[in-house]
Amino acid sequence: MLHAGRPKTGSSSIQHWLEQQTRQLRDEHGIVPVVARSDAKSEDRSVVETYKSGKVTSKDFVGRYRQRGRPRAMVDSLVEGLDRLASRGTIVVSAEEFARLLKDPDEGFVEGLNRLAEHHSVRLAYYVRPQHTALEATWCQMGFRHRSQTPSEWVLTVYRSYRYFTIAGRCREAMPNVEFHVRPFRKDLLTDGDVVTDFATVLLGMASVPGAHEIWSNPGLPLEAVNLLHHLPRDVLSLRDSVDLSVVKRHLAGWTPDESDDIVRSRVVLQHFCHETFEKANQRLIRKEGWAAENFVPPVAAEALPDGATGITELDRLWAPSASQGERELVYLLLKGLLRSTGRPS
Known about the structure:
Layout: E1 2-3, H1 11-20, H2 22-29, E2 31-38, E3 46-50, H3 59-67, H4 72-86, E4 90-94, H5 100-103, H6 107-116, E5 123-128, H7 131-141, H8 151-158, H9 164-174, E6 179-184, H10 195-203, H11 223-230, H12 242-252, H13 261-289, H14 314-318, H15 325-341
Parallel strand pairs: 1-4, 1-5, 2-4, 5-6
Antiparallel strand pairs: 2-3
C-alpha cells in the first residue's frame, strides 16, 4: 500500500495513526509500516526499512529524488527495498509528497511501481479534496508564503494540479498493474466521516480500526491570520524560513478569530471559480469511482456572488488583511519581539 496524499487531505493524521499503532498493526493485522529515505552514503540510492521511531513519512525520499535530478537508481533501489519487505507480508509506505510525482506522472517513479506490481498486489491511495476547500487549505498552509504573487495569481499558477480526473487517468495509463484508488476527502463521503477509518477499512481492508478517531494532525492557520502574514514586511519575518514560521504557528495555534464578511464572500468566489473550472471533470470522476455524491464542488447561485465580483481576481481584494495599519504595525512589533525572545534573528 502506497499512501500518496494529496496535501491537506489528512495525510498527517494517517501517518500519526500509523506511528501510534505500529505494534498492533504488525502483531494483530500483519501490516508493517515502512519508511523510504535517501541513502546518506550514496547520491543515487534510497533505503527502505521498517518503521521504528520518529516520523513514518517518506517525505525525505521524494525531496532528495527531485533535488538530485530524479536519478533512476533511486527508484530502482526503492523498488528493490519494497519488493524485499513485501515478500514477507503487507507493507504500507506513506508520504503526501508522492503526489508531486503523480501530478505529471514521473516516468521513472511510475515505471518502477508498475514493475513492482508485476510481483505484488500494489495499491495506491490518492485522496482528493473538493478544489475550493483544497485551494484555501493549501493557501493557509504554504501558498501565503509567496509574497511576490497576489492570491489570484497564486491560484492561477497552481490550479492545473487540481485536475483530479485527468491526473488519475494518466496515472492509470502509466501504471496498468497498480490499483489506483481515488478517495474523496469530504466528511460525508469518508467512511464514518473519518479519513483514518476510511484508509484503514477501504484501503487496508481492516474490519476494526484501533485509535482512529480524534486524530487531527497539522491543522492550518486561520485564513485571517495567513492573509496578515502574507503582507508582512520582509524585515519582520522570512516566510521562507520554516523555523521562523514554526515559531509563529506554535504561538497562533488555537487562535480562532471572527471571520470578516470579506472572508465569507471570498469562499463563494473561490467555490464559483472551482465549480466552473473543475466540476465537469469532477462529474466524470464521481461516476468512475462510484461515489454517492451529486457533485464535488457545489454550484453557486448567481445572486450569491458578491456585488461586482468579476472572477478569481476578486480574491485579491477579499483576502487583503482586514486589520487597520495601526493594528498591523502592532502585530509586526509583537512578532519581532517573539522571534527575538526565541533566539531567532529579527
